[in-house]
Amino acid sequence: MESFTITSKKVLTLVLVIDKAEQKVLLGYKKRGFGAHLWNGFGGKVEPGETTREGALRELEEEAGITVKTEDFKKAGILLFQFENDPVALETHVYKSYEYQGLIRECEEMRPQWFAFADVPYDQMWEDDRIWLPMLLNGQDPFYGRMYFKRKPVEDTKEIETTVTSVVNTSTSTHVNHSTTMTGTSFTTAQPKSGPFAMCDYQLEHSLQGVPREIALDGTIASFEN
Ligand SMILES: Nc1[nH]c(=O)nc2c1ncn2[C@H]1C[C@H](O)[C@@H](COP(=O)(O)OP(=O)(O)OP(=O)(O)O)O1
């Protein structure tokens, strides 16, 4: 895992708006930039002087046209994304809300759309989403984790079928390691739709100590929110 050594991190946000009554989640189709052509929550880089919470709310407004009241805006977890031979990790602060105000609208970067929980297009999302998004939708947060990605060989970005294993993890506090303890069902998916990176390993834990504030470079939780 030497090729995954990191020396710094960038702070990003990711927001999931959920309609609990209808069991639907609002995703956006990313039209350009990092993660283009994938469905994802709304978010981006935190600007200087902003808290992660402020940055997340700003991105939600910019990308989907809607606002969320502070009291409805909940931190769901932190994910540290690491890329092979890249010393800069992406520390992504994940938020969720069951309420929103305003009219959902498309912008030049994102095309928003509601998805029933059962129809979330995991084969057209970052590969890690199928691990943690079901936890978030089921209320099994807060969580924290690390995900490791390799760049796919160029030939893999063409249309090929590959087998992916999905996690069926009913426990709320176990350490899940992609390479050793994954259990579940196999299914096939068109990998190219999940972007130019392949997830090769991950760790994900339900945080029992509270809401994580930051992940240290060694992957441990540096501190928790009050
Ligand atoms: N592995 C991953 N899984 C996931 O679900 N979301 C990820 C991800 N890696 C990155 N993201 C999210 C975090 C963030 O919301 C978004 C990247 O945001 P950025 O603002 O960096 O994107 P852009 O390249 O569009 O930047 P700008 O030029 O600032 O608009 O992608």
TrEMBL record:
GO biological process: DNA protection
Compartment(s) of residence: Cytoplasm; Nucleus
Cofactor (UniProt): Mg(2+)
Alphabetical list of PANTHER family matching this protein: 7,8-DIHYDRO-8-OXOGUANINE TRIPHOSPHATASE (PTHR43758), OXIDIZED PURINE NUCLEOSIDE TRIPHOSPHATE HYDROLASE (PTHR43758:SF2)
Protein name (record): Oxidized purine nucleoside triphosphate hydrolase
Keyword tags: Cytoplasm, Hydrolase, Magnesium, Metal-binding, Nucleus, RNA-binding
Top-tier EC class: hydrolase
Domain called Nudix hydrolase: residue spans: 8-137
Reaction it catalyzes: 8-oxo-dGTP + H2O = 8-oxo-dGMP + diphosphate + H(+); 2-oxo-ATP + H2O = 2-oxo-AMP + diphosphate + H(+); 8-oxo-dATP + H2O = 8-oxo-dAMP + diphosphate + H(+); N(6)-methyl-dATP + H2O = N(6)-methyl-dAMP + diphosphate + H(+)
Pfam family, one: NUDIX
Job of this protein: Oxidized purine nucleoside triphosphate hydrolase which is a prominent sanitizer of the oxidized nucleotide pool. Catalyzes the hydrolysis of 2-oxo-dATP (2-hydroxy-dATP) into 2-oxo-dAMP. Also has a significant hydrolase activity toward 2-oxo-ATP, 8-oxo-dGTP and 8-oxo-dATP. Through the hydrolysis of oxidized purine nucleoside triphosphates, prevents their incorporation into DNA and the subsequent transversions A:T to C:G and G:C to T:A. Also catalyzes the hydrolysis of methylated purine nucleoside triphosphate preventing their integration into DNA.
GO CC terms of this entry: cytoplasm; nucleus
Organism of this sequence: Linnemannia schmuckeri
Lineage: Eukaryota, Fungi, Fungi incertae sedis, Mucoromycota, Mortierellomycotina
Coiled-coil region(s): none
InterPro entries: 8ODP, Nudix_hydrolase, NUDIX_hydrolase-like_dom_sf, NUDIX_hydrolase_CS, NUDIX_hydrolase_dom
